[in-house]
Design brief:
Blueprint: E1 7-11, H1 15-26, E2 30-34, E3 48-50, H2 57-65, E4 69-72, H3 79-82, H4 94-100, H5 103-112, E5 120-123, H6 126-136, E6 140-144, E7 154-157, H7 160-165, E8 173-177, E9 183-191, E10 197-199, E11 204-208, E12 211-217, H8 221-224, H9 227-240, E13 245-254, E14 257-264, H10 274-277, H11 282-290, E15 304-311, H12 318-322, E16 327-331, E17 342-350
Parallel strand pairs: 1-2, 1-4, 2-3
Antiparallel strand pairs: 5-8, 6-7, 6-8, 9-10, 9-11, 9-13, 11-12, 12-15, 13-14, 15-17, 16-17
Helix pairs in contact: 1-11
The structure holds adenosine monophosphate (AMP).
């Protein structure tokens, strides 16, 4: 057990790290953030900050030595440099990162655990893409296998001619069939060091241009009916990875059951509502899990909960939101409200 007073290292200095550090502070821990970007929202609320590149093994080794346990909020740290952190000190385990870093690996892993992803084919050349489009058909989406997020690194393909006209954005891509879904939802779970798994209620997630805009509870029946099968898959994936911490799997609810989209081996935007909407937030339970503490109750505390992301200039509504009863505003300390940038979120609790 890592006791309060100890130092938790957080790889990644964004808003997820910031909210993790706030939850950790409440339980009496100190946090040490690591990020190459000096302008870090997490560093603002951490006791220590290492600003160094992801590939700097020496800096990662020193960082790990200064921490009692290390976790991550950013999943694209490469396996090579990550080896500078002793395996027993890093939770979730690095295997979870390796699987989730690559869209083909994560889909294959979900399949091997009995899940059903969208049909997909790895693409490394224009010929591969033509073959993939012929095999899977259109519409489909070409995605980078690594480092895509918030809809970045994705190209919609509506016809074989679209594929021919596309200048391939490099190699290491995946083409996947477009899923005609009724709704999107996520399974957010926490797995303790002793293997105990707890789930939060699954929110209905709405995305615009690939970016999450809202997560709402209760979810519609099209989602609720598919949650048991989706939970079973997520728990199986977590077990196969010897996972410790919060893990999220995103799904499409379809007429033929849940289709696995992707997994995040970390706290997730669709779980931000748990700060005010659940007995124990995803951030607190992540800290509890990686420190070997008992897990907290994941029950939803209100009949209606809705999280809205404040993206780009949405943040200009902050003062208005503060005047709303039942609204909980979170701002991430980012100075520049660029288009598509997550500036904060608001959770509205309906009693
Ligand atoms: P991703 O980064 O893969 O989660 O994609 C971001 C969003 O794009 C998803 O949440 C969906 O709204 C949409 N999307 C991605 N892949 C597919 C797909 N195969 N079929 C339909 N919509 C998709």
């Amino acid at each position: 057990m890592i006791l309060p007073g100890a130092t938790i290292g957080i790889l990644g200095g964004g808003q997820l790290g910031r909210m993790l550090a706030i939850a950790a502070a409440q339980l009496g821990y100190r946090c040490h953030a690591y990020d190459p970007n000096p302008d870090s929202g997490a560093a603002e609320v951490c006791a220590e900050f290492t600003c160094a590149p992801w590939i700097d093994r020496n800096a990662l080794g020193l960082f790990a030595a200064a921490c009692d346990v290390v976790t991550f909020e950013f999943e694209n740290v490469l396996a090579g440099p990550l080896a500078a952190i002793p395996p027993g000190k890093l939770w979730p385990p690095s295997k979870a990162l390796e699987v989730a870093q690559d869209r083909c690996n994560e889909k294959a892993f979900a399949e091997s655990s009995g899940g059903r992803p969208a049909p997909y084919v790895a693409v490394d050349s224009a010929e591969d893409l033509a073959r993939a489009v012929e095999r899977i058909g259109t519409p489909g989406i070409l995605k980078t296998r690594r480092e895509g997020y918030d809809g970045k690194g994705q190209w919609r393909i509506d016809s074989p001619r679209d594929a021919e006209g596309l200048r391939l954005p490099g190699t290491n891509l995946v083409y996947e069939g477009f899923i005609d879904f009724a709704a999107e939802f996520s399974v957010i779970l926490v797995r303790g060091a002793d293997g105990e798994v707890r789930f939060w209620d699954s929110p209905h997630n709405v995305h615009r241009s690939g970016i999450l805009t809202t997560s709402t509870l209760p979810a519609p029946s099209a989602v609720v009916e598919q949650v048991p099968a989706a939970r079973a898959l997520a728990a199986k994936i977590a077990e196969a990875l010897d996972y410790v911490g919060v893990m999220t799997c995103e799904f499409f609810a379809t007429g033929t059951g849940p289709v696995f989209n992707e997994m995040a081996p970390r706290v997730h935007n669709s779980g931000h509502w748990t700060i005010e909407g659940a007995e124990t937030s995803q951030f607190e339970n992540h800290v509890r899990a990686i420190c070997g503490l008992p897990l907290g109750d994941t029950r939803t505390v209100a009949p209606r909960v809705a999280m809205e992301n404040l993206i780009g200039r949405d943040v200009e509504r902050a003062a208005q939101i503060l005047a709303e009863p039942g609204a909980h505003l979170h701002l991430y300390g980012k100075a520049e409200a660029r288009d598509g940038r997550k500036m904060g979120h608001v959770t509205r609790i309906g009693r």
